[in-house]
Batch of 3 targets.
Target 1
Amino acid sequence: MLTSVVIFHHPQSEGAAAFARQVAAELHRRGIGCDVADAWDDASGLDVAGAGAIICVGGDGTVLRTARITTPHAVPILGVNMGRLGFLTELSPRDLFNYIERVISRDWRLEERLMVCGDLYLPGMATPDKTFHALNDIVVSRKSPGRPIYVDVSIDGARVAVYRCDGIITATPTGSTGYSLAAGGPIMAPTEHHLVVTPVSAHMALARSLVLQPDSVIELQVTSEHGAILSVDGQEDIDMDAGASLRLRASEYVTHFVRFHPPTSFYADLAEKLEFQMSSRTHTGA
């Protein structure tokens, strides 16, 4: 049985915040300790590690943020979709109250998702300056439009190429349906354990994606004088100076998603969501 829950909500959605408070009130009524917080606020005052579950109210961006907050605690995340598509969320707001007894009794299955870890090395430094964990992807990209970057790419200690490109995406299977897919990368089942490296608009180099072994290590060194931008799940941006490098690998941490629905055809579901997305854009003129 659950004894404590943390609820994170999207910061700019009044509907998500109001629904989060409504869920918290219901859980409190049933004797379950519950904290409610903006997913982008400082979570240091919350007992995330001691929570029996995290309820995430918002869209996929809120889920991605929550996944990084819960690293390395491996607390199960239940996503409630307040957006349109919800690739990562499991329930609608109405469904959550229909499943509330199963939530409280922890009558669910867990789905494990690989994360990618990146160590950022400043020029000339032998130890990492920062370490990042991402559920979707870590991207090294150009700083300004019209000016490509140069990235020296090695895999497992062997040099692959110096890419003149708009960026290099290192994506997890979860992230393979995001930016990597838009850049021409392959679609992987979300519970796979392979990283995929996808160059963006590569010039005169191997322009195809590379699907790596589970234990492979990727090193990206920025050789452009104007540097680059390092992006973590599209939500944290860090400057990379010329000569800085990024060492990437499968993270030792994973994200656990709460699932109530039985496993279905991932590819059929994905096709349906992508078709819906394209249909919505066509109807709205986007």
Note: The chain has six helices and 16 strands.
Target 2
Amino acid sequence: MNINSNESKEKTILFRESFVFVLDLIRYTELLEKKKKDSLAKKLFEAGTTFGKTVNEARFVEKNEKLYCKLKKMKKNAQNMKYLLQLCKYSATYPNPNNLISDLDTLTYRILKISETLK
């Protein structure tokens, strides 16, 4: 079964927004490294690049079943990143992640929106 053009448009928007998000996350992890917060920086970097890679892979999936699996993986990665970013936000010794949490919430909403069209 092929995805419809609206789903394809949503996937394109998700890819663009997630690409910008991951670039912003990379900048944030570099800031964490400068502040000697290497452990969390590494975890965030890995989670963010895995998320971005999965979003990129999903752009080229044509079967709904495979796309749904990719979306599940994205949601799991997003939840992990949000938890790590919240730790940073509420820790007195970490720099504030600024808009990263709200940007991630927007991406998660897009993922859920695409998932709903597959059901």
Note: The chain is about 80% helix and 0% strand.
Target 3
Amino acid sequence: MSRKLTYDTYLFGAAMLIVVVGMVMIYSASAIITMQKVGSDNPYYFITRQLVWLIAGSAVMVTLMHVDAARLRDRRIIYGIVAAVLAALVIALFQTPINGTHRWIVVLHRFQLQPSEFAKPALVLFLASYLARKEERINELTSTLLPLVFVVAIFAGLILLEPDFGTASTLVLVAAGMIFAAGVSWMRVVTFTLMIIPAGLLLVLSAAYRRDRLFTFLNPEADPLGKGFQAMQSLIALGTGGLRGLGIGNGRQKLFFLPEPHTDFIFSIIGEELGFIGAFALVAIFAFLVWRGFRVTRFSQNRFDFYAALGFTLMIGIQALLNVSVALCLLPTKGLPLPLVSYGGSSLITSLIAVGILLNLSQQSG
């Protein structure tokens, strides 16, 4: 008798719980600042738009949960997705800049899509397909590694041109994790590390705003009302929350003190309003979600599923870790949303794409 295929309900439950926390905190963090951000006196402006994206993302997630896994492995579909995302990244560079960057494509004059967010699942699928086929020759430089590095460099390079150093870094870290899991030799790892560290430092130092973020990170107290303002306000929010927090809706740092409280720094608002207990609980749920993702990876029945599950788990885990680290001032400030939590349609949809594919693959594992 064949085994009945079931989804990982624990993974699904953890993801949905994080989404619910995100919706509640987006409303709490954005209701009062709507007039300042978009010139509207409607306190439900941001939460309504996020709800629209949630419905769309949920539809995509459910579709991916039920699609035939063989279609996920179809190279024609994967290459089509990669080509479409690369084209979108190029188109975004020629769009009217928003906040001084070319990260978005405006859709229907109201909604904005961020192609760099969709680059993450597209690259994960490409790498999963490529590594599954080239696994036995992973250490061959010209036939395997250089083409792999070339594709990753194209994605990262286009995103850096927006500019978006944080997303490009996330992309590279996810790719590095997947390639490492393929069994690349330690000599290649050391060589790559010795090359990437100077290149990364050069990129950081080549732009004034990135240099400022690095030096501010090293000493945020030197300019608490200027370049160190975000970092200091984030720490104040987290410190003010104490053990139990001020209560949902009672936070003060969102009142025009902490920039972007509903997006990049929503974890700081969570720490302020839900306290250490709430913030720790959210981190614990993320850790549980990542563990369930790694469990899908461990019990995968074929190599594509292994790499895809690993990549999507790393995609969520690494970005969550970076966002929380920035809020805690453990890393320089960068514009990275907290997956499934922060306001932003593209980020929410791509995170739900990752969850949907993980749930699909969880049926095949065991």
Note: The CA atoms of residues 111 and 290 lie 30 Å apart.
